[in-house]
Amino acid sequence: MPHTPPETKHTSSEAFDRLLQVLHTLREECPWDKKQTMESLRLLTIEEMYELTDAILDKDTDEIKKELGDVMMHLVFYARIAEEQKRFDIVDVLNAVCDKLITRHPHIYGDIQVANAEEVKQNWETIKLKEGNKSVLSGVPNGLPSLVKAYRIQDKVRGVGFDWEDKTQVWEKVEEELAEFKAEFNLEDETEIDHDKAELEFGDLLFSLINYARHVGINPENALARTNKKFIFRFSHLEKRAGENGQQLKDMTLAEMDVYWNEAKSLKS
Asked: pTM of the prediction?
């Protein structure tokens, strides 16, 4: 016999309770939902997060709303599984995060004085160490994509004062790393190139570029995501125009491709 869906609610607490009711029913009645584990949901959750970030970059409000709902559903799903295993429940999760936020904002819930957002971050990292974290970097997940991880590492150590004083010093470091990378390939005999060392030098160069981006207020992940999107748009236009004219990319010269590429540059992606 079909279940009657809980009606739409009009307050945040009622709407959240509605989600809990729906997940409870699905977990008990739906064959797919019943078989899920935290491990089986993990990759799906990662996918949902990427879909959310795509929507944010696209500034698509409706899609952001939808993807936020998907992410929230996953969070409730994990808590439901844990509750069934008698480990914790959604109330424990919500209280724990509230307790953490209160503890780490003594300038709001205590008598600590701060002058700016930078001091807030410094207090945050100091409090985390007092809570038992062995290192400032212990909160950086091992599985983060390397570009994002580099940015988070730099941001974390900045919170305890380990940072360049100004952006000119950082740019000097970029130029130093670029010169060291180029030096690995400026050999008369190319057979002597040490590709392992060159890879390490390239990593240093990327790390320093990410650091400079951070110093001038650019999120390198967002910047690269926008460039990727722009390239895909332009290349897709190239493919489309070539197809319209009966051309195969593999048979075209770069000069012929550039005609369509330059067309795409004049269009809005």
From this structure: 0.69
